[in-house]
UniProtKB/TrEMBL annotation:
CDD domains, per database record: QOR2 (cd05286)
Keywords: NADP, Oxidoreductase
Domain (Enoyl reductase (ER)): residue spans on this chain: 14-328
Alphabetized Gene3D superfamilies for the sequence: Medium-chain alcohol dehydrogenases, catalytic domain, NAD(P)-binding Rossmann-like Domain
Xref: InterPro entries: ADH-like_C, ADH-like_N, ER, GroES-like_sf, NAD(P)-bd_dom_sf, QOR-like, Quin_OxRdtase/zeta-crystal_CS
Pfam families found in the cross-reference section: ADH_N (PF08240), ADH_zinc_N (PF00107)
Superkingdom to which the source organism belongs: Bacteria
Record protein name field: Quinone oxidoreductase family protein
Alphabetical list of PANTHER family matching this protein: QUINONE OXIDOREDUCTASE PIG3-RELATED, QUINONE OXIDOREDUCTASE-RELATED
Length: 330
């Protein structure tokens, strides 16, 4: 039986005004697929990259990579979900900005009873990202309790989760953020130190905090504006973990610079490599569910928008006017 759904789509790449609400047909799930009706949808900075065309996708494109809701039907071969289950996901290809959709079941996980839909929609993509960054993206020298790491945009969606999780792991997270209020938020969520990188030189502050030694890892999702300074914050053999481009993509660089700055390592990670199998997705999600249900990591939803106000939601995110997580409500 076919039904229809509202869907936020772009027909060409560009600004927030390119997002329109279309009506699309939604059919039955095929083999390995699930049909899910959203109760809440997560907003992520990656949605901006998809909208502007930084990441190539065929058009028209239904945006959104995170959501939570109720499973309506499952296709052949899907054994970990059934109709009526509460579920949440982070998934590629995009398509979560809608009422109901058919999608691969691989990345869709049953939501524990203790986690509500809004929290589920807000935390999957950002929380699984914090998980792989802190648990799997390790310097060759290892990461021990007490070690310093630098995390940019620490008061954002991924950032506030990382502050709390890093503290639970015993790490001393130095967070950067774009205002004093955002710095206060990062500190209140477990950052050991916070730097307003709009008013302070973050390299000098990191050197002062670490007694000139530098940090073992920099987690950098800001990209163009912080790249150079981030390398200067690392101690010898340190790891530059680049995972985003909120200020624009990093310019090409000569590898020799890594030698000159102390035999550094660089990696560019993406969540979707980490969740490319059902087993890996579930293992990471279980880890995330455990820290959230234990209260070690609280998912802070600071902005809620109606799905129909998606343009305002994107404008707010791009203007650096948000903190924590943002959700869209269908
Ligand atoms: P955030 O809520 O963190 O929003 C982005 C933040 O980046 C802003 O709030 C702002 O914080 C900071 N920022 C710095 N410079 C700029 C700029 N020029 N324009 C806009 N923002 C800027 O977003 P998310 O939590 O959704 O994602 C955080 C980052 O992590 C993004 O870059 C995203 O692409 C990346 N990401 C990467 C993943 C991966 O696997 N590779 C997966 C998930 C997210 P402030 O004002 O404090 O500087």
């Amino acid at each position: 039986m076919s039904q229809s759904s509202r869907a936020v789509r772009i027909h060409r790449t560009g600004g927030p005004e390119e997002m329109v609400i279309d009506t699309v047909a939604v059919g039955e799930p095929g083999p390995g697929q699930v049909r899910i009706r959203h109760h809440a949808i997560g907003l992520n900075f990656i949605d901006v990259y998809q909208r502007t065309g930084l990441y190539n996708n065929p058009l028209p494109l239904q945006l959104g990579m995170e959501g939570a809701g109720v499973v309506e039907a499952v296709g052949e071969g899907v054994t970990h979900l059934k109709a009526g289950d509460r579920a949440a996901y982070a998934a590629n290809p995009p398509g979560s900005y809608c009422d109901v959709r058919v999608m691969p079941a691989m990345n869709v996980c049953k939501l524990p009873d203790a986690i509500d839909f809004e929290t589920g929609a807000a935390m999957m993509l950002k929380g699984l990202t914090a998980q792989y960054l802190l648990k799997k993206t390790r310097p060759v020298e290892g990461l021990e309790p007490g070690d310093f790491v630098l995390f940019h945009a620490a008061a954002g969606g991924v950032g506030l989760i990382a502050c709390q999780w890093a503290k639970a792991l015993g790490l001393q997270l130095i967070g950067t953020a774009g205002s004093d209020d955002k710095c206060a938020l990062a500190l209140a969520h477990g950052a050991a130190h916070a730097i307003n990188y709009r008013t302070e030189n973050f390299v000098e502050r990191v050197k002062a905090i670490t007694a000139g030694k530098g940090v073992k890892v920099v987690y950098d999702s800001v990209g163009k504006d912080t790249w150079e300074g981030s390398l200067d914050c690392l101690r010898p053999f340190g790891l530059m973990a680049s995972f985003g481009n909120a200020s624009g993509p990093v310019a090409p660089f000569a590898p020799g610079i890594l030698g000159a700055k102390g035999s550094l390592y660089v990696t560019r990670q993406t969540l979707f490599t980490h969740i490319s199998s059902r087993a890996a997705t579930q293992a990471m999600a279980d880890d995330l569910f455990a820290v959230v249900t234990s209260g070690q990591v609280k998912i802070r939803i600071d902005q809620r928008f109606a799905l129909t106000d998606v343009q305002a939601a994107h404008r707010s995110l791009e203007a650096r006017a948000t903190t924590g997580c943002t959700i869209l409500l269908p």
